[in-house]
Amino acid sequence: MSFLIFFLLSCLKIAIVLAIFLGSVAYTVLLERKLVGRIQNRWGPSRVGPFGMWQPMADGLKLFLKEDIIPTNVDRPLYILAPMIALGCALISIAVVPFGARITWHGVDMFEIADVNIGLLVILGVTSVGVYGIALAGWSSNNKYSLLGALRASAQVISYELALGLSLVGVVLRAGSLNLRTIVDSQSAHGLLSWNVFGGYQFVAFFIYLMAAYAETNRAPFDLPEAETELTAGYHTEYSSMKFAMFFMAEYANMITVGCVASLLFFGGWTSPFGSLIPAFGGILLQAILPVFWFVLKVFCFLFLYIWVRGTLPRFRYDQLMGFGWRFLMPLAIANIIATSLWLA
Amino acid sequence: MYLVLFIFFGCLCVAGALNLLFQRHPINSALSLIVVMSSLAVLYLLLGAEFLAAAQVIVYAGAIMVLFTFVIMLLNAGTEERTSGSAAAYIVGIPGVGVLVSLLAFIFLSARSHLATARLGDYVVSTSDLSKVLFRNLLLPFEVTSVLILIAILGAVALASKEH
């Protein structure tokens, strides 16, 4: 009986989280179009619904109804598999992200799908497998631009994965655990002052993580795999309809995951920035929901930053990208590990 | 429950390995190898070695195999041609494999009483326990191995930069 309850509640959690996640992916696209519009001194989408609020629905419907063209001479199985890998890996990593403090109901964690001891490594592993989606899409499309985009993406992801993984070591050293809940708990003592980015002196690690994560998600200013001016659209040039939409969703889902990881590791996750300065108010329900509000607010700030950076910074040149990753970020990440170890020792 | 998972991923692992041999295109073989490595990671997880499972996915499936596919894509390797194989391979190879498998099976079966047994999903080795073993009991072999890998990296760099 308890297994049945566990199974049903887990399915319910997965369904709810997936629905909210996909909804936020759709509205991140709208947020990006609105903000980039404002940065470029125009309105952005404003016709469909109030303030263009129904634009994501219209876009989704349009992509769903479009003709799905598969060019001749593509490697069909891989061509179809590639967007599924990309989107699947992007959606899996949200399963280990905790949204709030541990509150159990019938022995089931309410604010996290799966509380695993190695949550951080699971996210890193799933992201590192996600690059196959891009690589195989480019290779199977039988198109020069796609192949070049895929090669760039693979090289870029391998290069920046090192800096990304090394930048997180400092945080793991401080918390002494790879469990995301334990990492958040280790920075919850005095609100804002005990967050890893301020009180933990991990601001260098945070900036390394942020830049490496931008490169990992193929976002501006590291969006060379889909540089419009050189490669038309890079790895997804030959994709149309829902297959294109799957790559698109994967990109924005990865952005949200990066925001979640950054909030959990460096900005205290769901904990309030005021710590215990504000006494607990409201009922027990409000106290359970409030952490989720802080978490969502932090993730929203990261998405805002992502779009802001995209709207203001020009793209790197390829040799600059590689030099920056290998010669600057990686030594800096190693120096940060040594400094953190010495400080903790 | 654990047995079902073990049988499923064990079969997936073997099927991936066979597919790796029978595929003609290198990229399909590389993808089969990724399946093999990922199912091995699940088997490690069933034995309670969660850090090893994650490292298997990150290092082998995520980094090394990306390099494999990268090189295959870069060289634009085509479908390989099948030959019927040499007669020597059939005469020596197949009995050789048979002898090797039966020898290994014999050794494992006869030494079974001395070997420790592990039951699926019985325990979890935490990352801190693993690091205690690595950095206390096995410190010297661990550090020597890392120096060995460093030497290999330096050698590769030296070979690559020889022309300049």
Please describe what this structure looks like.
The complex is a heterodimer of chains A (345) and B (164). Chain A has 345 residues and is mainly α. Chain A has one domain. Chain A contains eleven helices and two strands, in the order αααββαααααααα. Chain A starts with a helix and ends with a helix. Chain B folds into two domains: 86 residues, Up-down Bundle (Four Helix Bundle (Hemerythrin (Met), subunit A)); 39 residues. Chain B has 164 residues and is mainly alpha-helical. Chain B is globular and about 45 Å long. The termini of chain B are far apart. The model of chain B has no long low-confidence stretch (mean pLDDT 84). In chain B, α1 runs antiparallel to α2 and α2 packs antiparallel against α3. Helix content of chain B is 76%, strand content 0%. At the A-B interface, α4 and α5 of A face α2 and α3 of B.
Number of domains of chain A: 1
Instruction: Please state the overall shape of chain A, judged from the principal axes of the Cα atoms.
Output: globular
Give me the secondary-structure category of chain B: mainly alpha
Please give the order of strands in the largest beta sheet of chain A.
1-2
The percentage helix of chain A is 55-70%
What global shape of chain B is seen? Answer: globular
Largest sheet of chain A: 2 strands, antiparallel
Helical content band of chain B: over 70%
What is the fourth-level CATH superfamily of the largest domain in chain B?
NADH-ubiquinone/plastoquinone oxidoreductase chain 6, subunit NuoJ
Distance between the termini of chain B: 58 Å
Q: What value does the Rg of chain A take, in angstroms?
A: 21 Å
Mean pLDDT of chain B comes to 84
Tell me the series of helices and strands of chain B, N- to C-terminal. Answer: HHHHHH
- CATH fold-level topology of the largest domain in chain B: Four Helix Bundle (Hemerythrin (Met), subunit A)
The biggest chain-chain interface is: A-B, 29 and 23 residues
Number of strands of chain A: 2
Quaternary state reads heterodimer
The termini of chain A sit apart by 48 Å
Structural Rg of chain B: 20 Å
